[in-house]
Every structure is written in structure tokens, then in C-alpha cells.
């Protein structure tokens, strides 16, 4: 891997480098995806909105802004600048991001009730926050979180989609899942109802890790191996654009959003 360059954020434990980009794709005339790259909080979010032009764009924007404000307000007082030394199950940051997603869900739902033209809007959310050498994830929908480590790539999130449920039940094969005309139907979203169940994950980070968040505009058109190879073979700052180019070269039938975060180890 080339040595990545870009905006550097350091604390006394780790350094990270992050880059994010969104693209309308080749078939859509507007972008309903939103992203958040907040290096001050080490907070990164991809949101893929749905519910029509205005609704989808509004939902994803509310999601990232609400999560950003919630985490910025809640995280610092909990940690108080000190590294937590207890068991991970008791870490004060564990529920901050899931609660932020729930706050976003309630805000999107309330906005839709106040504006009838936006009723039914919602969004996916895949988010990660880096605290005390851990990556804390919150996830709803079919945007994805990946970890690229030691030459391997692993999907950390589980798609909340009709096709994934069919796949887990053994009703269809992986090849049929890739080709299914129902692959854009999700079974869980942020804001469609007032509350939502949020998947949570915690990963101990290692120097050299690359964390990749993306909307399904990429995941539906690129294999895991292709994402891994592009992450390893390019400067990190170029990875989002290279992945977007790959999706657009294959038709770009949806909006495409990518965030990459590289863990550079101890300062």
C-alpha cells in the first residue's frame, strides 16, 4: 500500500486519516445520499435517503446533522478526556452512537408528520466512531461497513433487506441475490417510524486497518475483493473516487457514497 496522505487527526493513542466523497451516479438527476466526516469527533456516517427526491435528500441530511450534534454533545462529557479502562460492555461510548441514530429517527419522523409531502421518508445509516482504540458502529438499512485488515476484507454490517432475508433463509443463492430485482427493498430504515432497532458492533482497532463505509450504489456493483484491492493499491485519498469510478463504469444506477478511514497507529 502506498503511504496515505491527507488530513491527519492525532490524540495520544492513535492517528487516523479519512476521506469521503459522494456522487450522483449515471442514472439519477439528484443525490439523496449524505455523508459526515467529522475528524474532530472521529465520527463518520453514510446515509442513503428514500422517499422521493425531496424526502430522501431531507431524511439523509437530517440523519447526519442530528447524529453529528448528538455525538458532539454527548461523547465528550462521558469520556472527560480519559481513556476508559473497564470492560468494553461498560464503556460509556457504547450506546452513544445507537442513541444518536434513534434521535435522528425521531427527528425525521417528526419532520415528516409536520410536512405531509415528506411522509414516508427515511434513510439508511451506517456510522462509526473511534474512541479509546475501539471502533464503535451503529447500523440500520443496507449501506455497509467493511474492515480491510491483513490482506482480507470483512463486511461488518448486515444488510436489512428483503434479499438478505431470503438469502439467510436459503430461498435464493448468492448469485440470485446479486441479480434480484428486489435488492433495493430494505426491511428497516431510520425515520419511517418514530423508533428503530439499531445494530451495534465494537471492533478493537489495529494499526494498518482501513474502515470503509459505503451506500448500496457501490456495494451492488463492486465485489468485496475489488474494494479490498482498490483500498490497498491506491493512496487513501484516491480510494473513494476510484470506487465511485468503478460503480459508474458499471452503469452507476444509484447514488454512490464512500468514506475510508485509515488507522495509522500510535503517534
Protein model, in words:
The chain is an alpha+beta fold and 267 residues long. It has one domain: 4-Layer Sandwich (Phosphatase 2c, domain 1). It is 32% helix and 27% strand. The chain contains seven helices and twelve strands. It has a six-stranded antiparallel sheet with strand order 1-2-12-11-8-9. Strands 3, 4, 5, 6, 7 and 10 form a six-stranded antiparallel sheet that branches. A hairpin with a 2-residue loop joins strand 8 and strand 9 (152-155). Helix 1 packs antiparallel against helix 2 (96-114).
List keywords for this structure.
alpha+beta; single chain; about 30% helix; disordered N terminus; globular; about 270 residues
Please outline the helices and strands.
Elements: E1 8-10, E2 15-23, E3 33-38, E4 43-50, H1 52-79, H2 96-114, E5 122-123, E6 125-131, E7 134-140, E8 144-149, E9 152-155, H3 162-168, H4 174-179, E10 199-204, E11 210-214, H5 216-219, H6 224-233, H7 239-249, E12 256-265
Antiparallel strand pairs: 1-2, 2-12, 3-4, 4-5, 4-6, 6-7, 7-10, 8-9, 8-11, 11-12
Amino acid at each position: 500500500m502506498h503511504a496515505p496522505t491527507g488530513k491527519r487527526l492525532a490524540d495520544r493513542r492513535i492517528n487516523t486519516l479519512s476521506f469521503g466523497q459522494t456522487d450522483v451516479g449515471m442514472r439519477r438527476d439528484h443525490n439523496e445520499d449524505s455523508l459526515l466526516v467529522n475528524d474532530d469527533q472521529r465520527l463518520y456516517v453514510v446515509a442513503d435517503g428514500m422517499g422521493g427526491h425531496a424526502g430522501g435528500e431531507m431524511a439523509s441530511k437530517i440523519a447526519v446533522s442530528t447524529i453529528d450534534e448528538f455525538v458532539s454533545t454527548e461523547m465528550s462529557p462521558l469520556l472527560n478526556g480519559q481513556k476508559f479502562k473497564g470492560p468494553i460492555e461498560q464503556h460509556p461510548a457504547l450506546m452513544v452512537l445507537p442513541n444518536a441514530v434513534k434521535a435522528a429517527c425521531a427527528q425525521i419522523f417528526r419532520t415528516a408528520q409536520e410536512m405531509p409531502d415528506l411522509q414516508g421518508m427515511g434513510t439508511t445509516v451506517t456510522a462509526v466512531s473511534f474512541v479509546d482504540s475501539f471502533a464503535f458502529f451503529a447500523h440500520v438499512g443496507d449501506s455497509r461497513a467493511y474492515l480491510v485488515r491483513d490482506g482480507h476484507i470483512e463486511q461488518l454490517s448486515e444488510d436489512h433487506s428483503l434479499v438478505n432475508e431470503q438469502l439467510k433463509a436459503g430461498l435464493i443463492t448468492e448469485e440470485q441475490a446479486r441479480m434480484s430485482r428486489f435488492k433495493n427493498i430494505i426491511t428497516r430504515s431510520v425515520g419511517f417510524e418514530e423508533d428503530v432497532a439499531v445494530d451495534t458492533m465494537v471492533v478493537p482497532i489495529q494499526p494498518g486497518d482501513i474502515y470503509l463505509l459505503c451506500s448500496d450504489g457501490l456495494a451492488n456493483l463492486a465485489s468485496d475483493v475489488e474494494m479490498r484491492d482498490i483500498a490497498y493499491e491506491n493512496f487513501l485519498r484516491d480510494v473513494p473516487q476510484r470506487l465511485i469510478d468503478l460503480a459508474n463504469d458499471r452503469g452507476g444506477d444509484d447514488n454512490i457514497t464512500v468514506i475510508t478511514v485509515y488507522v495509522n497507529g500510535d503517534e
